[in-house]
Amino acid sequence: SHAAPGRDVPHPPPGQTTQALLAPPRAVPRRFIRLNALFHVDRSSVEDTLRALSSEIASEAAAGPEGGAPADDVRAVPWLRSDALRFYSLPGHVRLSRLPSYRRGLYYGMDASSGAAVRALLRDLGDGPAEVLDLCAAPGLKACAIFDALLSRGAGGTVTAADVDAPRLRTAVQIVR
Question: Mind listing the pLDDT tens digit for each residue in 35-69?
């Protein structure tokens, strides 16, 4: 580390200025999706969705100012790849709301950090039925992922989702339905 003795603020690495460290990143970060388990009951349905998504991304990119993105730029997130989670990353410029497959509900926009929280919870649940309380649950995507995981385990259980923000909770109810 380049931290000065007795201070918490690190110094920039040799050759880098403070302005360079504070500058916004040049690349657009990737965005993440989780496949909706209601539509993906087997490998074939997953592959169909990924093909459609790749095609839609390529079409959107070709029509946009970016000049096109590779159609194969839909990548599985290896550590969130289980049948219960099925996370993928997409180019950051992709606008999910413009994609027909998104509007059909085939997947959700969900950050990988939320998937990591679900994965950590699943690891600690054990083999029997589970009772999970998701506080601050809106908009409900983690609760859906937890429920899908409980179903895929076959052990049963319940997920209770609660939130104090009424408009966000209404969104959660729509997603769960």
Answer: 998 888 788 899 999 999 999 998 877 766 655 55
Burial call 111-143: b when 16+ CB within 10 Å, e when fewer: ebebbeebbebbeebeeeebebebeebbbbbbb
- Residue 147 CA to residue 81 CA, distance in Å, equals 16
According to DSSP, the residues that pair with 34 across neighbouring strands are: 87, 108
Is 88:50 a contact under the CB 8 Å cutoff?
Answer: yes
| pLDDT for 4 | 43
**Distance from C-alpha of 42 to C-alpha of 98, rounded to nearest angstrom:** 26
Q: What is the DSSP string of 115-170?
A: HHHHHHHHHHS-SS-EEEEESS-TT-HHHHHHHHHHHHHTS-EEEEE--S-HHHHH
pLDDT tens-digit series, residues 64-89: 665 555 555 899 999 898 878 899 99
CA 141 vs. chain centroid, Å, equals 9
